[in-house]
Amino acid sequence: MFYRAPGKAVCADVIPFYHDGEFKLFYLRDYRDIENCGEGCPWCLLTTKDLVNYVDHGPVLLRGTQGEQDLYVFTGCCIKLGDKFVIYYTGHNPHLRRQGFQEQKILRATSDDLLHWEKDKDFVFEAPDYLEMHDFRDPFVYFDEEKQLYCMLIAARHKNNDATAHKGVTLVAHSKNGYDWELSKQDFYSPHAYFTHECPDLFKMGDWWYLVFSEFTDKILTKYRMAKSPNGPWITPKVDDFDGHAFYAAKSATDGKRRIMFGWNCIKNNEKDDDWWQWGGTIIPHEIVQNSDGTLSVKCPDEVRAEYNKETPYKETFKMGDIQKLENGYAFGGEYKNIQLFDKMPENGKIELTFETEDERGDFGVILRSADHLDRHYLVKIEPKHNRLTMDKQPRKDGTIHFMPDVERYFVPKKQNQMTIIFQGSVLEVYINDEVAMSGRMFDVKEGDWGIYTHSSKVTFKNIKLYTK
After folding, report:
1. 453 pLDDT exceeds 80?
2. What is the pLDDT of residue 406?
3. Which CATH number among 2.60.120.560, 3.40.1160.10, 3.30.200.20, 2.40.50.140 corresponds to the domain 308-468?
4. CA distances (Å), origin 207, targets 226, 239, 294
5. What is the pLDDT of residues 201-212, one digit of tens each?
6. What pairing do the DSSP bridges indicate for beta strands 427-432 and 55-61?
7. Residue 53: helix, strand or coil by DSSP?
8. Cβ contacts of residue 209 below 8 Å, gap of 6+?
9. 10-305: what fold?
């Protein structure tokens, strides 16, 4: 259901395009196998009508040679101009930097059918002298109805004396026909806060415009800004992200009824819990929700939630603490550690439950893959006093860190809440109240029991259900 490229390869940045009743998901394929697959990165095409079943058509925008600009075919966009489909993309080649040439330039390709692409060898768009020469990438094209111009957003960096992490800027270029471009010297968005603003995306919902980008210098997240005009001024909302560190480089597309954001749930080096996060992983879709005040949230798409639809019975196993069994759930006392485990958790499936609490002292949540008498397990942990949803695990690599600091979300529980947890192999996706999403990974512990717990927190869990396919 959640898609990862075959073999050793991973899916990196997704470039979504909706056409003819399908989401056309171009994605960067990192082979992770230079010995057998060679160096470089192409665009592959993945298609889906339901966000659950995918067809991978393989490489469609091919990588160049080591001497060409597009050895790595990096992020861009796909648009339709007249009868032609047009891709603007980043040609990236680190070997050129070593030779004193620009590492990144914006290139173009055209197609009649989205499967067969011809590169336009005569088109090159590169950074002018007043910008850093090696960061000029991730073109995103849209049409400005007011100006009657095509606009191209570009991730770049100022050449100035600011600190390295403060030079990032989103630029804009204009075109009357979508082919010939002139770069504006007026910044589109320049907050002096990040190394660069990767994978820009722009769209309108209702009365608001949204600028989406990903940054890797602060918290390594996909973020957004909002404005009443596509030209700003851009406002930072209180919660300006869609997910945690394990969901990155997300861009969106609409099918005319809703807008779906596609990012990647990154893997870790050697696929070990305590190793470092790597570039690329598994493609995850979130549905974007516009709140009454114009801010954005994300929820699990209905098709994904419905995929695990076979309710699976489970049995109580280990029990500890002050727990009262109810007709449709459990009431946990407000002191000490209280745990109710159930029998073996499947490798792939879905857990749904509701919870009620007004207690802000401790923490509570769901235990996943508990093994060796709770010595090894994962937690989906809610900490009301910190307004935080996070992951935890046992054993911890560093006993001074009481949660996985790179997998957390801002979350304020309501009196009544609904939680959905979807797991597929190592992939973990958590959704609460169709408002909050949190992606994570579970590499080390492959199997075990599951359950619910509280720690110095009075909580009632109800309607606890386990589903498989």
Report:
1. yes
2. 77
3. 2.60.120.560
4. 10, 19, 8
5. 999 999 999 999
6. unpaired
7. coil
8. 202, 203, 226, 227, 228, 229, 230
9. Tachylectin-2; Chain A (2.115.10)
